[in-house]
Amino acid sequence: MPSxxxxxxxxxxxxxxxxLFRLFFKKGDPSHYPVQAEKVRSILIxxxxxxxxxxxxxxxxxxxxxxxxxxxxxxxxxPLNKQLVDNDPVFDAVHxxxxxxxxxxxxxxxLKAKRFDIVxxxxxxxxxxxLLLTKLIGNASITAxxxxxxxxxxxxYCEPYQRDGQxxxxxxxxxxxxxxxxxxxxxxxxxxxxxxxxxQAKAATFVKSIGVxxxxxxxxxxxxxxxxxxxxxxxxxxxxDAIARDLPTARFIIICTKEDRENGRLLLQGCEGRxxxxxxxxxxxxxxxxxxxxxxxxxxxxxxxxxxxxxKIPVVGLYCGHMRNYHSWKPYRQxxxxxxSSHEGHLxxxxxxxxxxxxxxxxxxxxxxxxxxxxxxx
Length: 378
Known about the structure:
Layout: H1 4-24, E1 42-46, H2 51-67, E2 72-77, E3 93-96, H3 101-114, E4 118-121, H4 128-137, E5 142-148, E6 157-160, H5 169-173, H6 176-179, H7 197-210, E7 217-221, H8 233-246, E8 251-255, H9 261-269, E9 275-277, H10 284-291, E10 296-300, H11 303-310, E11 315-319, H12 323-329, E12 338-340, H13 352-377
Parallel strand pairs: 1-2, 1-4, 2-3, 4-5, 5-6, 7-8, 7-10, 8-9, 10-11, 11-12
Helix pairs in contact: 2-11, 7-10, 8-9, 8-13
């Protein structure tokens, strides 16, 4: 990971470029929207960044294909996040942006030659990379973007970034429907990541082998890529103990990367056969397929928690105290279920009891909605 100094230098250089864009790039033309859907044959979506960022655009892409079945949807991914879309039938082609000029220049030329009707820069906030790719590939296209600030002027359609706003990044992806004259509020966003049949089969075999069918099953992810973004294992153990006292028949599935498997085994020791560790070597989509079998999911702020929400699985999410970032990534369209640290850079002050209390609140909310549903069908 680049050092803080390198990142600051990179940001300063990109800010230096902003005035130059006024010399070389023309302003967007708002008269291009709303577009007539029947005249739009193809769209390229730009999402060459992180795993979580790719997840946020998947509902919009799936909804576009559902609304306009003949629309050809292609996507520009990164080597990291392409795994989420490689086998998804919604995408007619997946292209990889590698941040390597020898690979990327030929790619840009090939994409430009396709003459997409729309190029959608789904990267929220100003991105020099996003703007350059949009202009180089889509010089003959209608250009749209999601939540820009200083660079908003260069797109035909773009909603402004709200510095103190509380928009979720999934809802920001749905803004593309404004370009077609459709309100994003009318679009069902609960369209999850496509799970390959192989991943579903692995998950089904594992779940059957541990005998949790018919039990209330809680998924717990203890991996977040950095020690600052997860809790001490003793706190997770306390959470499981408390939930087990509340729900004696509950079963737990522990999800972790290979680096955290020892911690996963430690959690199993105090659970007396109630907890099970996922098999080694699962891919992200394999893990997502396992999560599709749980009734509740607890996790730090990672891609898995957003995948779970798009499956409509209730979650308890653990977040650092950077509030702008929290509002962008909080549990999607869920009234409760957030435990937020008082520190912007880590979760270390979050206590097990806070997680348990939030779990109980989510359970109560779910039970209340189930009761409402039952009474409405009587």
